[in-house]
Amino acid sequence: MAVRHGDEFRAWLRERLKHTGTTPADLADRLGLTVAPVSAWVAGRSEPRDHVKRILVDLLDGSPTAELAAGGNDTGPVLRWHHRPAHADGGREYGNPAAFAFDADLSVLAREATQNSLDERRDPAHPVRVAYSLHELSGTHLEFFLRAMQWDDLRAHYVEAASAQQKVSRSLRAALDDLEESGSLLLLRVEDYNAAGLTGPEYRDGRYAAVVRRQLDSHKQHEVRAGGSYGLGKATLWATSRFGLVLMNSTLSEPHEGRTRGRVAGRLDLPWHQVDGRSFAGPAWFGTPDTDAAHEGVSRSWWADDRTVRGLHLERADEAPGTSFLIVGAHDASGDAESLQEMHDKLVRSLADGFWAAMVGGKHADALLEARVTTLRNGEVLIPEERVDPHVHHPASSHAMRAYFDGDTVPTLTSAEQVARVDVPLVVPPLKGQGRGRGKGTEHRAVLLLTPAADTDVRHSRVACMRGSRMTIAEHRPRELPLGTVPFQAVLLAGYATGREGQDVEAAEAFLRASEPPEHDRWDRTEELTSLYERGALSRLKEFRAEIDKAVRALIGRRETPRGEGPEVLRDLLRLDAVATGGRRSQSFPVVRSIQARVDDRGAWHVTVGLKLPDATDPWVLTPVAKFDVRSGGRPAVGWAELTALDDCRVAEGNLLIEAGRRTAVFSGVTDPSTHPVRGTLARLAVDLQKARGGAS
Hints:
Layout: H1 6-20, H2 24-31, H3 35-43, H4 50-62, H5 64-70, E1 80-85, H6 106-119, E2 128-138, H7 139-148, H8 151-161, H9 167-182, E3 184-193, H10 207-213, H11 235-239, E4 241-251, E5 263-269, E6 273-275, E7 278-289, E8 299-300, E9 302-303, H12 306-311, E10 322-330, H13 340-355, E11 369-377, E12 380-387, H14 390-393, H15 395-406, E13 420-428, E14 442-452, E15 462-467, E16 471-476, E17 488-493, H16 503-514, H17 527-532, H18 537-557, H19 568-573, E18 575-577, E19 591-599, E20 605-612, E21 620-629, E22 637-638, E23 640-647, E24 650-652, E25 655-658, E26 664-671, E27 684-691
Parallel strand pairs: 2-11, 15-17, 18-27
Antiparallel strand pairs: 1-7, 2-3, 3-10, 4-5, 4-10, 5-7, 5-9, 6-7, 7-8, 11-12, 13-14, 14-17, 15-16, 19-20, 20-26, 21-22, 21-25, 21-27, 23-26, 24-25
Helix pairs in contact: 2-3, 4-5, 6-13
């Protein structure tokens, strides 16, 4: 065994004395010394010479006396679960409130966990690498894992915690029943490389304490650039576990106790419960008992060997710093991903949708992120590793980002392959107490990129807005686009996402960050925004959105070589059969102002229709009816699989409702291939808008 020094030696000595039941006086007697030097070693005031340390190893790690005192031949650290005692004042928490800030959804987990990894990027010359691994265990594989994490010691706590009537208890009861009936357990390992890792002391300020010991502590490496700011994102790890249980293995970028590799711990979040007459607050930690008097009996992290790491399914691919989080009993509470294939696909899709821009690089900017997803069953690969490719999932938008990084943008689109760029002004208001009488604030020039949409893009004609590490914050739909607008993809880069530095960049980054809720999915009014900035901050955001719309309209209006707008026959055959009654007899009727359509691989027609409506005192209530214009016979109606209101309208019971006074509306629909009399590619589609029966509801 290598000779230890400093904090590493002190921690090892304390642990071995505790493990073997040896007192400093006993050790001093066996060494032929007084108790004073041994007490100094334990306290960390001094260290013995190396040859004495080797004697200590023989005495405490490998001697028959040490093995007998330990009760067996296992001389590894003692591991146990420490459950926090209930509050002395009688207070109770029936679950972790932070876990309810987000849905227990795989897409939310992927977004929050990956954002945290990006925020902790260590080496700016290389991307952060994230890996998501689903692993289903059953049979002996499950037995070995449950034994390694000491499930038998947790069982009584789970049973009692699940016996209450609160929401968390009911969920725990269902999870325990499923484990018993199915005999299987799903693990989800979320790991990053080229990240900071869980550095810092066990209890004082640091990344480790922020993640393992605390709630709402956002301890970021580069706070000014960080995507997260609430300290809530880590709670999605525990929320995704049906058992509220997460194990961790971290390779540190900065040594702790003289070591960097294999810092392992576990945290469990249960509601208040009682076991054998004792009351427990709920949280529990897995580790080795702390030997410090101030934390007597508390379980702390330990330096695990390779065998222990493998048994806990926490092994890491290489020596790069970062952390592996193992979610025990992973699930997707949304209900739209139940099978392993569905969960695998959802993780891939979520990573692509949230971070495609961070995965794109070019001549003048490197990719910030790489992401992979793998699925296993009992140690065997079930679905091979899939690298998330932004150019596959978001081809047009990724093309636009690469053109920006390569300096290949143009001011005006003249061909379908080009990417147009224009600056968009954002006025950052002054902080409170710093700006009254000094004008509106600091102007930041955000960057808007626009290019024609790819033929495979289902969602298009929106602006993906981002800052910082290029995570998509929101998709903004521009208003008042010109008639017949060709489908496009646009990207709005603000703050550090522009790739620039400067006072205005830093100001814009901080301002937009303050305007984001915990979900980081929009720029809008927040308590932080109104507390930090002078009056008018919300108006500056509204002006920014208006400037984005203005920039999009300018680029669309300047196009000289538009691409096709979908099948011409669809535009020709779309008609409105709105029947006029009463006061509308002398009025005109809605007309089509834009239309986009395509047929997917299943044969389903996807159609997006923009309407222009006359001024009216009554609401419009219309029923969109899809019909096939076949070669012979009448036009058979086909069913809608989806009917969606996009702008200035709503859908109710298959009807399109447009409020009085609205002058435009946009809706979309997808036909149901099971109702098609012939394949979608063999017929033309007509859409009738008929007056609905029964009026508005």
